[in-house]
Automatic annotation (TrEMBL), chain A:
Keyword Nucleus: no
The name this protein goes by in its record: Amino acid ABC transporter substrate-binding protein
Gene Ontology process terms (BP): amino acid transport
Regions annotated as coiled coil: none
Classification of source organism: Bacteria, Pseudomonadati, Pseudomonadota, Alphaproteobacteria, Hyphomicrobiales
CDD domains for the chain: PBP2_BztA
SMART domains in alphabetical order: PBPb
Segments forming domain Solute-binding protein family 3/N-terminal: 34-267
Keyword Transport in annotation: yes
Family: Belongs to the bacterial solute-binding protein 3 family.
Pfam family, one: SBP_bac_3
InterPro entries: Bact_solute-bind_prot3 (IPR051455), Solute-binding_3/MltF_N (IPR001638)
SUPFAM superfamilies for the chain: Periplasmic binding protein-like II (SSF53850)
Automatic annotation (TrEMBL), chain B:
Membrane topology: Multi-pass membrane protein
Residue ranges crossing the lipid bilayer per the database entry: 21-43, 82-115, 127-149, 186-205, 217-244, 264-283, 365-387
Location(s), subcellular: Cell inner membrane; Cell membrane
GO biological process assignments: amino acid transport
Keyword flag tRNA-binding: no
Keywords for this protein: Amino-acid transport, Cell membrane, Membrane, Transmembrane, Transmembrane helix, Transport
Protein name: Amino acid ABC transporter permease
Molecular function GO labels: transmembrane transporter activity
Length: 338, 396
């Protein structure tokens, strides 16, 4: 009901508060002094408040990078915790400036919701988590299982597709809130918990006894997760997209938060362009020419935020895999800054 | 008298603007115009903004394939079903839980309400504690409690509790054998319909006879005999039989049989318990509102205890009970939308939740959902008003 109320309020404000949606978002953001960032209710490694109630995660870092580019201050971000159900309405109603919330890029969302996907911050795929004691080795053994799912996600559709394609039947239990999904799985209401495999790993790290749960080898879908902005404001879209590319470009050029000041004196023209020493790539975006320097200085490059939040040394423990740079066998690739 | 007759004519003619009738009309026109202007503005603004946001709008999505699964459905459902079918499934699930909730909340509420008036100290205290505790805790918390507490207490699938007649209870719900009547069973339904008709005729005849001769007829007992007798004869003569499809344990769960998921049980239970506490207070107030003098008067007329309650006390109490009872029924129906929080696939979960998200048609889905609750509430209200009209005291 709460969620429904929020939806109704958001739907109503769609009707009323649209002037904000039509004006240039960057000007609005500069005027209010912070970026309003839509995040999850708490998926460790992606967006979750830590023990000091500070939001951390790879998606949070994207919002911080945008704030760094605009304000030279990565902390000029305010967070709105959204459920899967609320996220798109909140974005199109102008409640948030950028949605950075484990959101899968799909064609219908890109073309029908009045929103634009910036890029793929994280290449993911949907997986299944089961209890080890059940002795299941493959997702193809899941016929007849009860499956806990969060409402309003691509997960819901993929699961239905997968079970239908393999001639299996299943029982879904759909909750509005991610926390209830996990709780119901832990309490034994479901045999299976399914979502993006990275989020499975993240949720498992929160369990009382993570070793009792296994993630099945099958990845049943492509889930390119990325930040989203409202469609129709190309300046804001470009700023978001090139913030993401700057993170990748910095990794590719070996520029890190630790060595960025030394790199200002680098002879490499590509580094000079990235850091604003040579040429001015910031002004066309509506920010200063050292925008990328500010991002790298405060947030770091893509590799740094990956390792810090979801990498093998964290409780989430995800290898780079597809998310490695193109030259390292992955598919993360940024067009040149020139 | 003459002064009275001529007074209106001889009164000084009020100026056009001071005439209360004209003023009233002007106020009505102004208010209506403002309201219409507001609606036009908000609809136009919404449409313009939606267009500016490049959003696809309209109701055509209802005829598109939904592609998701709904676990508990009264209608046949598959991932190839359309969104309008998802709407119907959600609506029926809402109606089902609301209907069950209303029936049980009424029974429980009347029982507790009467118990609260009991002269037995223990009975009345239990009723008081129940009412005060339950109606002062938010319903959403109660639903979480019933759902997660009960879920934890239930045995896992492989340790299912076996109940009589091949039924089972576990964390996945309650499983009972599904009755599978054969083709001959249609005759049993016909026999039952005949029996019900016979009971109505009997009641009508008995009342006429009571009014004409003052003689009573044991209507209740005879009706019972008629109902059971005619149906049983129909069953025997037609030779109908009922097979049972029992639930069978498979790798993950029971298959076959009829299954009640824990989400439904928890929601129906929570709504019943919660609403019953309000109904109990309504019933207590209704009964206490009947003056004790009415009891004494009925006794002095020589009415039996049963008749005194049935003909004197209850009709007067109902007059007080019905209007607030109606609003409790409406509350229960609307509160069933909280089922979305505990995973029960009712209208808000299926339509204003999943469907809204998969299609992105926020305004359309929310508008349809609001309209449904409005219609449900108005229909319940109309029904109860009709009933209220029947039990109202006839003033002479």
């Amino acid at each position: 009901m709460q969620k429904a109320l929020v939806s109704i309020a958001v739907a109503a404000s769609l009707g009323l508060g649209a002037t904000a949606a039509n004006a240039a978002i960057l000007d609005d953001v500069k005027a209010k002094g912070y970026v309003q960032c839509g995040v999850t209710g708490g998926v460790p490694g992606f967006s979750a408040p830590d023990s000091n109630n500070v939001w951390t995660g790879i998606e949070v870092d994207f919002c911080r990078a945008m704030a760094a580019a605009i304000f030279n201050d990565a902390e000029a971000v305010r967070y709105t915790s959204l459920t899967s159900q609320e996220r798109f309405t909140a974005l199109s109603a102008g409640e948030i400036d950028v949605l950075s919330r484990t959101t899968t890029w799909t064609m219908s969302r890109d073309t029908q919701l009045g929103i634009s996907f910036v890029g793929t911050m994280f290449y993911d795929g949907q997986g299944f988590m089961v209890r080890e004691a059940d002795g299941i080795a493959s997702a193809l053994d899941l016929s007849g299982a009860a499956v806990c799912i969060e409402s309003g996600t691509t997960t819901e559709l993929n699961a239905a597709d997968y079970f239908a394609a393999n001639g299996m039947d299943f029982n879904t239990v759909v909750f509005v809130d991610q926390d209830e999904v996990v709780k119901a799985y832990e309490d034994g209401r479901c045999d299976v918990y399914t979502t993006d495999s990275s989020a499975l790993a993240a949720e498992r790290s929160k369990f009382a006894n993570p070793a009792e749960h296994i993630i099945l080898p099958e990845i049943i879908s492509k889930e390119p997760l990325g930040p989203v902005v409202r469609a129709g404001d190309s300046q804001w879209f470009n700023l978001a997209r090139w913030t993401y590319f700057a993170l990748l470009e910095a990794e590719e050029l070996g520029v890190t938060s630790a060595n960025v000041d030394e790199m200002l004196g680098s002879d490499n023209p590509a580094i000079k362009r990235l850091l604003g020493v040579e040429g001015d790539f910031g002004t066309p975006l509506g920010v200063t020419k050292d925008w990328a320097y500010q991002i790298i200085k405060t947030v770091g490059n893509y590799a740094e935020t990956y390792e810090r939040n979801v990498g093998p040394s964290t409780p989430i423990g995800l290898e780079r895999g597809l998310n490695a740079l193109w030259r390292d066998g992955g598919i993360q690739y940024a067009p040149p800054i020139r | 008298m003459t002064t009275l007759d001529t007074a209106p004519q001889s009164a000084p003619r009020a100026s056009f603007f001071n005439d209360p009738v004209i003023r009233g009309i002007i106020y009505q026109i102004v208010v209506a115009a403002v309201l219409i202007a507001f609606i036009v503005w908000i609809v136009g603004n919404t449409a313009a903004n939606l267009a500016a946001q490049n959003k696809t709008t309209g109701f055509d999505f209802l005829w598109k394939t939904a592609g998701f699964d709904i676990s508990f459905s009264l209608l046949p459902w598959s991932r190839g079903s359309y969104y309008w079918e998802a709407f119907l499934v959600g609506l029926l699930n809402t109606l089902l839980v609301a209907f069950i909730g209303i029936v049980f909340a009424t029974i429980l509420g009347f029982t507790i309400g009467i118990a609260r008036l009991s002269s037995n100290f223990i009975v009345s205290s239990i009723a008081t504690v129940y009412i005060e505790v339950i109606r002062n805790i938010p319903l959403l918390l109660q639903l979480f409690f019933w759902y997660f507490a009960v879920l934890k207490a239930m045995p896992a699938v492989r340790q299912s509790l076996e109940l009589p007649y091949g039924s089972f209870i576990n964390q996945r719900g309650i499983f009972v054998p599904r009755p599978m009547p054969d083709e001959q069973f249609g005759f049993v339904w016909i026999a039952l319909a005949v029996a019900v008709a016979a009971v109505f005729l009997l009641r009508h005849w008995a009342r006429k006879r009571l009014e004409a001769t003052g003689q009573r007829f044991p209507v209740f007992l005879t009706s019972l005999v008629l109902l059971i007798g005619i149906t049983a004869i129909g069953w025997l003569v037609s030779g109908a039989s009922v097979a049972f499809d029992p639930p069978v344990l498979e790798r993950f769960n029971f298959r076959g049989g009829l299954a009640l998921p824990p989400e439904f049980v928890a929601l129906a239970f929570g709504l019943t318990i919660y609403t019953a506490s309000f109904i109990a207070e309504t019933v207590r107030a209704g009964i206490q509102s009947v003056n004790h003098g009415q009891t004494e008067a009925a006794q002095s007329l020589g009415l039996k205890d049963n008749d005194r309650l049935r003909l004197v006390i209850v009709p007067q109490a109902m007059r007080v009970i019905i209007p607030p009872l109606t609003s409790q029924y409406l509350n229960l129906t609307k509160n069933s939308s909280l089922g979305a929080a505990i995973g029960y696939p009712e209208l808000v979960n299926v339509f204003a939740g999943t469907s809204l998200n998969q299609t992105g048609r926020a305004i359309e889905c929310i508008a349809i959902t609001m309209l449904v609750y409005l219609v449900l509430s108005l229909a319940t209200s109309a029904l109860m008003n009709w009933y209220n009209g029947r039990v109202r005291l006839v003033e002479r």
